[in-house]
From TrEMBL:
InterPro entries: Beta-barrel_OMP_2, OMP/PagP_B-barrel. SUPFAM superfamilies: OMPA-like. It comes from Gelidibacter gilvus. It holds the Pfam family OMP_b-brl_2. It comes from the Bacteria. Transmembrane segments: none annotated. The keyword Cell wall biogenesis/degradation does not apply. Residues 1-20 form the signal peptide. Residues 20-178 form the Outer membrane protein beta-barrel domain. This is PorT family protein.
Length: 202
């Protein structure tokens, strides 16, 4: 995974040699939000289904040159997975901090990659989603899920002249989500999240 991250970063820096141009040379602040398609990847657990949720947060785009920007973000991100033919949803909400390297391929069109650090803030099981009384919140002390998660974020998007942007991003889990001192200590599972969003820069 470390090699994958290095390749992604080197590729982005190499892309700066392509004739490309960013929209602005001043620091911009913005808001963003959109849909999450979340799941987990694991060879130790049976099939799980995709969970639909959302992300919402703030970002700051810091131009390094006309072609390259650094974009830190703070997002509230709903993640997890569905199981038992979507009869139950295991929900894990995180405060995610992506640190994105961003390269403009042509005017408006960009690619991005970077590490993402997640801090779990809520965990619950929702049995028969949509019905009343089916939600069970899990206390941190009773949880099998770690409070901290790391990911590699890869994405692309388009930024319009008016500040509106459309983006697609994949967050690849790099660390096991399960704690080492629980019944699931020998189970290796990682978060896997697609994010499709809309942003606006000020």
């Amino acid at each position: 995974m470390k090699n994958l991250f290095l390749v992604a970063v080197i590729g982005l820096f190499s892309a700066t040699t392509i004739y490309a141009q960013s929209d602005d040379t001043t620091i911009q602040f913005g808001v963003k939000g959109g849909v999450n398609l979340a799941n987990i990847t694991s060879d130790d657990i049976g099939d799980s289904d995709q969970l639909t949720s959302f992300h919402l947060g703030l970002f700051m785009e810091i131009p390094i040159s006309e072609r390259f920007s650094f974009q830190p973000e703070v997002l509230y991100s709903g993640q997890g997975f569905s199981a038992f033919n979507e009869e139950a949803e295991y929900k894990m909400d995180y405060i995610q901090v992506p640190l994105m390297a961003k390269v403009y391929i042509v005017k408006g069109l960009y690619a991005e990659a970077g590490p993402q650090f997640g801090f779990k803030v809520k965990e619950e099981i929702d049995y028969k989603p949509g019905s009343e009384g089916g939600e069970i919140e899990i206390n941190t002390d009773d949880s099998y899920i770690k409070n901290f998660d790391t990911n590699l974020a890869l994405g692309a998007g388009y930024k319009f002249d008016n500040g509106l942007s459309l983006s697609a991003r994949y967050n690849l889990g790099l660390t096991n989500i399960y704690k080492d001192n629980t019944l699931l200590q020998n189970v290796d599972a990682k978060n896997s999240v697609w994010q499709f969003g809309v942003g606006f820069s000020f």
